[in-house]
């Protein structure tokens, strides 16, 4: 029986959102003929094992993926979608997402995102990744006669929801940092071939500390709407077994190839 170890870090680039190669403001004139191919697949997400999420997604994520946090002044939550760095177990060889599993908002909204037009500005613009495989001459038009089409209007709505959720998540991160709720953990998984797979050095919530929190703080968290997300994070830590099963399937398929 062998044991393999991985260290899990959640480091996203502040200057460039996850999945984006380049950032370009969407322009009705410059991109008048641009189309979105909704069948392009999820190849852009195939090489990451961590995906940023918002607290609005916790109830969906917790059922299938462990939730861990980044280090730093404001810890941010990530869904674990693979056990190895650069390997997303949810995306298959055909670049399709695994059936009946939750697709995080950061994946759904790519290659679109709302970003401030300037540092510290409250005004935002729609930004695209012009290198995305889904953007080009195939698919549904983004503009008609200079006006956003229904699909672009829907995308803008989704990106608005995601941005609002991320703002709320930043406040959640500030709260757990101030309360010092994060602790480093490790998990050891038994794969179907009998080998062990260990992941160390990821940050997660300390259930014992939450359980021992003072009543006045607990009541404030309930008023602020933090209790449910906290418990959903703790619940998510029961989801490592699905990833272990998928890693076992990946290894078996590779051995038989």
Automatic annotation (TrEMBL):
InterPro entries: SapC. It comes from the Bacteria. It holds the Pfam family SapC. This is Peptidase. It comes from Aliidongia dinghuensis. The lineage of its organism: Bacteria, Pseudomonadati, Pseudomonadota, Alphaproteobacteria, Rhodospirillales.
């Amino acid at each position: 029986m062998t044991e393999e170890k991985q260290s899990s870090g959640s480091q996203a680039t502040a200057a460039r959102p996850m999945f984006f190669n380049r950032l370009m403001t969407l322009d009705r004139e410059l991109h008048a003929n641009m189309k979105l191919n909704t069948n392009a697949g999820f190849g852009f997400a195939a090489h990451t094992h961590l995906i940023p999420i918002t607290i609005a997604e916790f109830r969906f994520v917790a059922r299938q993926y462990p939730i861990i946090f980044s280090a730093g002044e404001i810890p941010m939550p990530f869904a674990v979608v693979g056990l190895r760095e650069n390997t997303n177990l949810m995306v298959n060889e055909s670049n399709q997402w695994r059936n009946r599993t939750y697709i995080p908002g950061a994946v759904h909204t790519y290659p679109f995102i709302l970003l401030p037009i300037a540092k510290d500005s409250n005004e935002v613009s729609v930004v695209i990744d012009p290198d995305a495989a889904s953007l080009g001459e195939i698919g549904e038009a983004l503009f008609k006669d200079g006006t956003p089409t229904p699909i672009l209007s829907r995308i803008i709505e989704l990106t608005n929801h995601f941005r609002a959720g991320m703002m709320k998540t930043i406040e959640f991160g500030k709260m757990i940092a101030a309360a010092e709720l994060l602790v480093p953990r490790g998990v050891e998984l038994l794969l179907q071939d009998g080998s062990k797979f260990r992941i160390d050095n990821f940050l997660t919530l300390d259930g014992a500390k939450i359980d021992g929190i003072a009543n006045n703080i607990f009541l404030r968290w309930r008023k602020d709407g933090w209790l449910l997300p906290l418990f959903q994070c703790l619940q998510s830590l029961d989801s490592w077994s699905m990833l272990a099963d998928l890693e076992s399937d990946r290894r078996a398929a590779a051995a038989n190839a």
